[in-house]
Design a protein that fits this description.
Elements: H1 2-8, H2 17-31, H3 34-42, H4 49-69, E1 77-79, H5 83-94, H6 99-117, H7 121-128, H8 131-153, E2 156-159, E3 163-166, H9 171-188, H10 194-208, H11 234-237, H12 243-268, H13 280-297, E4 302-304, H14 308-313, H15 319-332, H16 336-340, H17 344-359, H18 370-386, H19 389-406, H20 415-429
Antiparallel strand pairs: 1-4, 2-3
Helix pairs in contact: 2-15, 3-4, 4-13, 4-15, 6-12, 6-13, 8-17, 8-18, 8-19, 9-10, 9-17, 10-17, 12-19, 12-20, 18-19, 19-20
Protein name: MFS transporter, AGZA family, xanthine/uracil permease
Transmembrane segments: 21-44, 50-70, 99-121, 133-157, 169-188, 195-214, 234-255, 314-335, 341-360, 372-401, 413-429
InterPro entries: Azg-like (IPR045018), Azg-like_bact_archaea (IPR026033), NCS2 (IPR006043)
């Protein structure tokens, strides 16, 4: 116990071992849904679902254990929501990029991310991009994955006359709606693990209506990760036409991770009077390194999870909490038979709820300033309407630059924005 207290500086950070353990368990319960949802999303790209379950658990374990043992932070990491949707729906399904190449794109974005983390370059780039666009990106991705969730539930379907329409209320759709309502009520009541509980109950209801088969066993050795392990194609990702997706992965991860780290650090009291976050450097390296490792193993961008705040609220302040969370992911490897039976309509409500959480960022936008609102609106709505996060990003940045140029408001523009704008234009044209 003395070793744990000394190594993780538990007493120094005014915490206790019991607080750290409970905080770590709470964080795991709050984000365990990713073990089910990530394979469900990525498998649509043609990747082996069993291997994805194993890799999701292992990538989450590795990223989180590094954050705990090396960075001494209670913040857990796992494949990011929104980024996995971008990987599947935009790259592999819409643009027909092979999933091996898509993994290469994620790998390169992680490498560039790691380079940008050196010397605080990443924070300087982040500070040069307007807050309104950062908020719009989060809101747009939220709307995009919520749209995917509605499609997965069978509520939104294709319609030749109107592009989209409402689907039939089949048994599975009704069960999915019940699951969505359960998650919403759990989240309103602030019950821990609400999303995971909703997925489990929806799956049980699927068994009741005869749509889901009961597994013959609960525990087993994890499926082999071989079908996707080390299958990334880095050389194929080195194409002019793929600069946009590489930038998009890097950009989204940039603000996703920084936003999570800043908000969680503030809750822990790790932001000093000058606004600097203590120990931020190691967490940034952990985030970038985990993305590289994750892509090598066979999953989309691994990033810091805001659900870590659930454990922090219970008193978690050190890496011991993250270590406990990491062990939760490791143990989950042996429950693959249960995870494998979860149907898509059980995970679809989770996409909607996560989308809602991301979309609420738009509440901080300045609705009275059209120069701010127009680019934000373009970003938010073109993501789901074009079924592409990268296209929404590109149109949003370009519209922001053009509006400020045409209104001679040059003080809101900078070299970084023009550089990003050039990449965005190249992405749209190539």
């Amino acid at each position: 116990m003395e070793f744990l207290d000394s190594y993780f500086k538990i007493s120094e950070r005014k915490s206790t071992i019991s607080h750290e353990v409970m905080g770590g368990i709470t964080t795991f319960l709050a984000m365990a849904y990713i073990i089910i949802v990530n394979p469900s999303v990525l498998s649509l790209s043609g990747m082996d679902k069993g291997a994805l379950i194993t890799v999701t658990c292992l990538a989450s374990f590795i990223g989180t254990i590094i954050a705990g043992v090396w960075a001494n932070s209670p913040i857990a990491l796992a494949p990011g929501m929104g980024l996995n949707a971008f990987f599947t729906y935009t790259l592999t399904l819409e643009r027909q990029v092979p999933w091996q190449t898509a993994l290469g794109i994620v790998f390169l974005s992680g490498c560039f991310f790691l380079i940008l983390s050196i010397g605080g370059i990443r924070e300087k780039i982040a500070s040069s991009i307007p807050v309104s666009l950062r908020l719009a990106v989060g809101g747009g991705i939220g709307l995009f994955i919520a749209f995917i969730g509605l499609k997965g539930m069978g509520i939104v379907v294709a319609n030749q006359a109107t592009f989209v329409g409402i689907g039939e209320f089949t048994k599975t759709t009704c069960v999915s709606i019940i699951g969505l309502l359960i998650i919403i009520v759990m989240e309103v009541k602030k019950k821990k693990g609400g999303i995971l509980i909703g997925i489990i109950i929806t799956t049980i209801l699927g068994i009741v209506i005869g749509d889901v088969a009961i597994p013959s066993k609960i525990l087993s050795l994890p499926p082999s990760p071989a079908p996707i392990l080390f299958k990334l194609d880095i050389m194929s990702a080195f194409k002019l036409s793929l600069i946009g997706p590489i930038f998009s992965f890097m950009f989204v991860d940039l603000f996703d991770s920084l936003g999570t780290l800043m908000s969680c650090s503030k809750e822990m009291g790790l932001i000093d009077d000058s606004g600097e976050v203590k120990n931020l450097g190691r967490m940034l390296y952990t985030d970038a390194g985990s993305t590289i490792i994750g892509a090598t193993m066979g999953t989309s961008t691994v990033t810091a999870y805001v659900e870590s705040a659930a454990g922090i609220m219970l008193g978690a302040r050190t890496g011991l909490a993250a270590t406990v969370t990491a062990l939760g992911f490791l143990l989950s490897l042996f429950f693959t038979p249960l995870i494998s039976i979860v149907p898509g309509y059980a995970t679809a409500p989770a996409l909607i709820v996560v989308g809602i959480f991301m979309f609420r960022q738009v509440a901080s936008l300045e609705f009275g300033d059209l120069k701010i609102l127009f680019p934000a609106f373009i970003t938010i709505f073109t993501m789901p309407l074009t079924y592409s996060i990268s296209t929404g990003l590109a149109l949003g940045f370009l519209s922001y630059i053009l509006v400020h140029l045409l209104t001679f408001d040059f003080k809101k523009l900078n070299i970084t924005l023009f550089f990003i704008g050039a990449i965005c234009l190249l992405h749209l044209l190539v």
